[in-house]
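Try this one yourself first.
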């Protein structure tokens, strides 16, 4: 799943290519032909921003294109005539802007929002502080986490209404680095631990904005400490890394049972 750093990077690239330019043509999936996304030709793109895992392409005359990539979606930019990296049948929206194509592949959400709909959007308005914001609202993020005292920490940090931007990879990596039990409730952790955890997440996400493969470690054996390493030895203590499904969505959590010992009865 694209995480906050991926969406932020996409917004930067789209902004450089499209900001201030007029859409020459817009093509959409068949099921979207009745939507306003099919009628974007002639409209000018006034800005592109990332909000956590959401991407907004603002239009100069009001409204915005809102996308959420879900598990497999992505935005690509191509010069006219260049082969695409994904099948054309997966392109939900193709914007032609001069000699550039902006293609949105297999999004979970893709919609046109009027100015009023943008102001009233439930999910966008309820997002927690964005870890990649210029000024991260640490105090608010901590306060929001405290509103979910019985929620396991590995689920709470993925709840975009509490803090936005963290996905499956950063969840597992950051909790490992801070030696925190993913299955213990938020209430089991003190303020200093939660603040250090959020600061660690922000630091790594900011370091991974250069477009290279995401990494949280340097050294032989791999770019990540625990994610995707079930059954392999921990780089710190040599114990076997474990994986457990967590939350209603059954998202995978990787952790080291020795480095992240259970708190209370969470294990």
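Now uncover the answer:
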């Amino acid at each position: 799943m694209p995480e906050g750093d991926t969406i932020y990077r996409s917004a930067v690239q789209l902004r450089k290519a499209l900001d201030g330019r007029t859409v020459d043509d817009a093509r959409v999936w068949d099921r979207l032909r009745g939507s306003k996304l099919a009628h974007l030709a002639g409209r000018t793109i006034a800005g592109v921003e990332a909000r956590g895992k959401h991407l907004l392409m603002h239009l100069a005359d009001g409204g915005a294109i809102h996308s959420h990539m879900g598990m497999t979606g992505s935005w690509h930019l191509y010069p006219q005539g260049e082969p695409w990296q994904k099948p054309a049948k997966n392109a939900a929206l193709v914007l032609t802007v001069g000699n550039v194509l902006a293609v949105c592949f297999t999004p979970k959400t893709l919609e046109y929002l009027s100015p009023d709909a943008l102001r009233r959007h439930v999910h966008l308005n309820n997002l927690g502080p964005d870890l990649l914001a210029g000024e991260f609202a640490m105090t608010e993020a901590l306060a929001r986490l405290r509103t979910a005292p019985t929620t396991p920490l590995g689920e709470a940090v993925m709840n975009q209404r509490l803090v936005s931007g963290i996905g499956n990879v950063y969840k597992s990596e950051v909790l490992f680095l801070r030696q925190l039990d993913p299955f213990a409730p938020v209430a089991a952790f003190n303020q200093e631990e939660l603040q250090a955890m959020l600061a660690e997440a922000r630091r790594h996400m900011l370091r991974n904005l250069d477009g290279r493969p995401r990494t949280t470690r340097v050294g032989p054996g791999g770019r990540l400490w625990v994610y995707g390493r079930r059954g392999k030895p921990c780089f710190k203590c040599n114990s076997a890394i474990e994986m457990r499904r967590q939350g209603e969505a059954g998202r995978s959590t990787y952790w080291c049972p020795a480095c992240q010992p259970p708190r209370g009865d969470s294990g």
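Discussion: The chain has seven helices and ten strands. The CA atoms of residues 119 and 256 lie 43 Å apart.
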